[in-house]
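Example record for the data management plan.
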Amino acid sequence: MGNKYVVVDLETTGNAPKKGDKIIQFAAVVIENGIITEQYSSLINPEQSIPPFIEELTGLSDEMVENAPLFSEIAPKVLTLLEGAYFVAHNVLFDLSFLQEELIEAGYNGFYGPVLDTVEMARILFPTADSYKLSDLALREGLDHERPHQADSDAYVTAELLLILLNKLKNLPHTTIERLHKLSGGLKSDLDILLDEHILINESKIEQLADDIEVHRGIALKKGTEPQESAGSGLQAFPFREEEKQALFVKAFPSYEKRQGQFIMMDSVYEAFKNKQHALIEAGTGVGKSLAYLVPAALHAKESGRTVIISTYTTQLQEQLLSKDVPLLQKMLSFPLSTVLLKGRSHYLSLARFVQTLRDDEDNYDTILSKMQILVWLLETDTGDIDELNLSSGGMIYWSRIKNDETAFLQDKSWISRDFYLRARKEAQKADIIITNHSLLLTDLTASTAILPEFSHVVIDEGHHFVKASGKHFGNKLDYLSVRLMLGQIGMMEQKQLYYKLEKLVEEKAGIRDDFMHSFEVNQLIADILHEMDELFRVIAIYAKKYNKAKKSVNRISVRFNKSTANKETKAVLAGAERFGFMLKDLIQAIDSRVCAVAAIKSALSLEEKALMEEVASILDDLRDMNEDLKHIFHLPASEFVVWVEMDTRAAQNATTVYAQPVSVSEYLKNQFFSQKESAVITSATLSVKNSFSFIVKELGLEEQQCTLKQIQSPFDYQNQVKLVVSDDLPEVNAVPLEEYVAAITEHIISIAEAAKGRMLILFTSHEMLRKTHELIKESGFLEDYAIIAQGVTSGSRSRLTRNFQRFDKAILLGTSSFWEGVDIPGEDLSCLVIVRLPFSPPDEPMAQAKNEQIANKGKNPFSEYSLPEAIIRFKQGVGRLIRTSSDRGVIVIFDRRIITARYGKAFLDSIPPIPVEKSHIDEIVDLINDWL
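Corresponding structural encoding:
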C-alpha cells in the first residue's frame, strides 16, 4: 500500500479551541510505503500562559515556549507535510479540530483530506485489549514510549502503532474485510477508503486462509477444536506418603521446596471426598491452596468417573486457575485431564443472532463499532465469551441483542455446529473438572434446565464470599436504567421499535383477532407505564433522601426500605409499585397474545421475521422476570427479607436500584445445596475468627459436627517479614469532626508515603473519607511526583486500578471495601499497608442492620455474633494483601487505636499470624519504615 500517512500529535493549553485554547507543541511523523521517512516537531508560542495542570501533564512551561515560533510561522511546513496524505492521530477529532482552527486563523485553508483514528482502529483490530490509551497500547505491543504527553514521543509511538494496525488489517481474511467495509461508512474516520483499497487488491489474488480459520456462511471464524475423549494411561493413585507427594510436585516445579501445609490440605480434601463429608479448610497465604485441592479433585474425578466442580467468586481467580495452575497440574498427572471454564449462558455470543443483526441498517455508532470488533474477534476467540471483549457501554446494549439464550423462533440449524454455548456445555459434559463461579453454581440449583452436568463433589474457593453470592442469588433487584432500557426497546408506535414492528407483523401475517387489546390501547398503556415507572422511581428517591442517615455531602447513599411503617412516603412507594405492577401485567398479556398468534403460523415467517419474534420473545421473558422482582420486593411478607434502596444523589433517577435479599441464607443453602451434595470443600485464607469456625459454619447453614474443620497456618515467617505499628498520636476517629480527622490522617499518609517511596495501599471503610483524603493529598501538593489512584475517583475497574498501580514505582492506592478482598499485588509492588479504620460495616448499612435485629430478637448479642466476626474476616483479608511470597517484607500501619484500647481489639490481633505490635508517634513510624524497608 503506497499511501502516505502523517501521524500528528499536539500538546495544547486546554481542550476547547473554540474558547481560545492554543497549541503549544506540534509533532508529525511521516510514513510512506510502510516505513517512517520523516519526523518533524516544534514548540509553539501560544501567546497566553500555560495552565499549571497542563504544565504538570506535559512538562512544558511558559519559559520553554516564550522564544518558540508562532503557529502562523510553521503553518506552511505543516501544510507541506499534510499534502496528499491521510491525517492520522490517536483520537483524531481532537487534534484535527485544533489544527483547523489554527490554520484558518493563520489565513490558510484547513485540511480536508482523509483522516484515520488509531483509537478507532485499535478498538476494531484489538477487540480484547484492556484499554485503548496510547501508553497502554504501547505496553501491550512492546513499543518503547518514554515520554508520554510530549507530542514528539506520542506521535512516534502512534506511528509505530499505525504500522502494526495496518499490517493486521492487510492480513485479515477477504470476507472479513468485505464485511468490515459494509459497516465502515458509519465510523468517525475514513477507514472505508482504506478497506476499499484492500478489496480491490484482494480481487486480483487467490486467498490462502490460515490453517485454523474457516469461512462458514460468509463469516470467517476460528475453527473449533473437537473435545478430546480423555484416553488416560490408566488411573493414578493418590500420593498418601510424603515422598510420593514430593515426587509429584517436582514434575511441575523442578526446584520444589516442600510445603507441609500444602500436603496436609491435599490429604484433607481427598479424605473429605472419599468419606463424603463437607469440609472447611482455612489455608493461610502461601500454602499453595489451588494445587492442594486441584490434585485430589483431578484424581477423584478420574477414579469415580464423575465431574468435580471448582467454584470461585472472582473471574480473576478463574483465569488464574485455568492459565497458570491447570497446566502445572497436568505436568503432575500421568493421564490427560480435561478442564473447562463454564459461565452463564448470556456470557456467550449467539452466532445466529449476530449474523442476523449484520443485515440491519439503522445502526448507531456504538453498534457499528461493536459489530466490527466482533467480526475481528471471531478470528481469535475459542470461547465466544464476552468477558474477553472490551465493548463500550453502548456496545453492551447491543450485546443484549446477540447474546446466547433460549431460541423459540430462530431455529437456525446452520450455526448449531458452531454454537459457543453448546460447545462449552458439550465440553463440560465430558470434563473431569469444571471451573465456574459461585453465581452459576447457585443458578444451577434453581434453573429449570441444569447448566452443569450432574455432580456430587465440589470445591468452593474464596469461600468467605459464598454467603454474599448466595444472598444476591436468592434475592431480587430492580434498577431504573434496566427498566427504562427494556421499555425503550419496546417503544410506542411512533417510535417504531419492537412493539411497532410486532403490530405490523401481526396485521400482515396473523391478522388482528377480536380478543386482542386494540393497538391504540396498547400504545396508551406503554405511554402510561413509562410515566408510572418514572413516578415510582421518583417517590423511591424522595423516600431515600428523607430517611437517609448519612451526611448530606455523601453522593452514594444506601437506605433501608421498611414496608411495615405507616408514613406517607412508604405508602406512596407501595401504591406506585402496585399501579406499575398492574399495568405491567396488562402489557405482558397484550404482547403474549400477539406472540401466540404469530407462533401458530411460525413456518410462514421469513428469517428476518423470525429474528424479530426472537427479540420480542426475549423481551417478554425479561418483562415477566421484572414483574416477579417487583412482587418480591414490594408485596411479599417482609420479615425474612431486607429491602433497601441504593442511589447516587447526583443523578437521582438514573442511578437508583432497589434490592431485596434474605437476611440469612443459611436455611436456603442447607436445604438446596449442602444436603444435596455428597462433599463440598469450602476453602479460603479467611474462614476462622479467633481460631474458631463457628461464625462461618452458622452463616453457611452447616453443623460443626458434620464437617471436617482444618486450619493450616501460612508458611511465611511473619515475625521477621512484617512490622505492625499502631499510630498513637491521632485523635479517636469518633471523637472529632470528619474534616479534622481527615486532615490529621492526611499528614500521616504524606509522611509515610515519602518514607515508603510509594507502593502503598490505604484501606478505608467509608467512601466519603477516602474522597476527602484524596482531595486533601492532591491539594497539599506534597506528593506531586506520586501516582495517586483512588477507587471511585480514578476511573476503571478494580483489576484495572491494580494494573495501573503496578505500572508506577511511586504509587499510592486508596481503596474501600472491595479492595479489602481479592487483590493480588506481589512483591515489591506493595510494601506498606495502611488500615485507616477497623473494617466494621457502618451501623446503618441495611443488611448489617437487619442481621443485627434478627440476632437481637433471638436474645443474642449482635456485636459479638455478627459485627465483630465479619469485621475480623475483612481485617484478615486486608493483612493478607501484604505478604505474598517468602521474600516479601512489609509494614502495616493501623490508624485506628481501638485495636489496642478497646476490649475487642485483641480479637483482631488473635486472628492473624503472630506479629509483634508496636505503638509509636509518626516520627518513630517514619524512622521504622526507613530502617525496615
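Summary line stored alongside the record: The mean pLDDT is 89.
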